[in-house]
Design a protein that fits this description.
Shape: elongated
Order of helices and strands: HHEEEHEHEEHHHEHHEEHEHE
Strand order of the largest sheet: 3-2-1-6-5-4
Helix content: 40-55%
Number of strands: 11
Structural class: alpha+beta
Distance between the termini: 66 Å
Number of helices: 11
Strand content: 15-25%
């Protein structure tokens, strides 16, 4: 194990950390929530919000670790703060001389992968990290790395807001000025939360709506339906597993993105296209007669077959109209059954459920 060196600006960094008055405070739900989002987006079972004190690493939030602190010399995050403007990623601790014989690598929790995004003070000092880790080696995808850095900035805003709250408590005589500052930070925090909320409703690969956003839109469309019920289509890329097996997952992701582009172009402003999972997509077409919806799906099928991506790509489509008294899940199940009928009938076709 290689002990982390001390930053050149250590005295100023520690002074910045002390100004936040956060060390040894109780757990707070806001920090736990941001850690949960980070672990979920990155697909990791463990993680922490850490702060690096003079001789220890202290956890403001944690999952998968025992205790509230560790010696600083054993802290992965003490290495991460050495480059405040970079995300530190260790794909495999067994291949990194800094950590190959680390106690947390050789013993519990048996860390093999680590990624830590520095938490910065308003004047640029690295106070600690938002980090995620797991027991298997791996790597972050680009969108996961960007999301982890975005969430670390959110934790930094939370620290600043918390510090400001404390200043207000200590300076009641300047009430109006501090209230204005607090309102400004709340506006910033609300905007950041809106951005996070958008992330949780968007598929990170294709940029389309995800299942959560689709469920909300379908329920709303059913509630608002007039004489014409919404039409729903489930789309599946034919033989997609062969694309991944023969050409690789990168080429598979390219196919999904190209299909998403066609869906976005054809249904923007006239419904919703969402990624349902894997190579399946769903189209929601409010106030659309079933015959018209079928024509749109046939046009989509033909457009996909003409995509200039160097691979023969076709889709199968199951189409239904919502029935009165039916739940959104019932509608999707009927569309899924129609999709399987399209596959059984030979694929590259649209099947409309009766």
């Amino acid at each position: 194990m290689i002990k982390p060196p001390t930053p050149a600006n250590e005295a100023e960094r520690l002074a910045a950390l002390q100004r936040y008055r956060i060390l040894d405070t109780p757990h707070e739900q806001e920090f736990d929530d941001l850690l949960l989002i980070a672990r979920t987006l990155c697909g990791m079972r463990m993680g922490a919000v850490t702060l690096i004190d003079s001789d220890r690493q202290w956890f403001k939030a944690q999952e998968g670790l025992v205790g509230s602190q560790t010696p600083r010399e054993e802290a992965f995050c003490a290495h991460a703060i050495l480059q405040p403007d970079k995300l530190m990623v260790v794909p495999d601790t067994h291949q990194d001389k800094r950590f190959v014989d680390h106690p947390a690598v050789l013993g519990a929790p048996h860390i093999r992968f680590y990624a830590g995004a520095p938490l910065l003070s308003t004047d640029g000092y690295a106070l600690g990290t938002l980090c995620v880790f797991d027991t298997a080696p791996g790597q972050l995808k680009t969108y996961q790395a960007e999301a982890l850095c975005a969430l670390s900035r959110q934790v930094g805003r939370m620290l600043e807001l918390r510090k400001l709250r404390g200043e207000i408590d200590r300076h009641q005589s300047e009430h109006e000025w501090y209230e204005a500052r607090l309102a400004d930070y709340y506006r910033q925090l609300e905007q950041a939360n809106l951005e996070l909320s958008e992330q949780t409703r968007t598929d990170p690969l294709t940029g389309l709506a995800n299942r959560r956003a689709l469920a909300a839109a379908l329920s709303e469309s059913i509630e608002r339906a007039g004489d014409i019920p919404p039409a729903v289509a489930i789309i599946d890329v034919d033989h997609f597993k062969l694309v991944n097996d023969i050409h690789g997952h990168e080429e598979g992701d390219k196919v999904l993105n190209e299909l998403a582009g066609v869906l976005r172009a054809q249904f923007a402003g006239r419904g919703m296209a969402a990624r349902y999972g894997g190579e399946e997509f769903v189209i929601l077409m409010p106030d659309t007669p079933l015959q018209q919806a079928e024509l749109q799906c046939q046009f989509l099928r033909e457009s996909v077959s003409l995509l200039p991506i160097g691979l023969p790509v076709t889709i199968s489509v199951g189409l239904v109209a919502h029935r009165a008294g039916e739940t959104p899940q019932d509608t999707l199940r009927r569309a899924d059954a129609a999709l399987y009928q399209a596959k059984d009938d030979g694929r590259d076709r649209v099947v409309v459920a009766g």
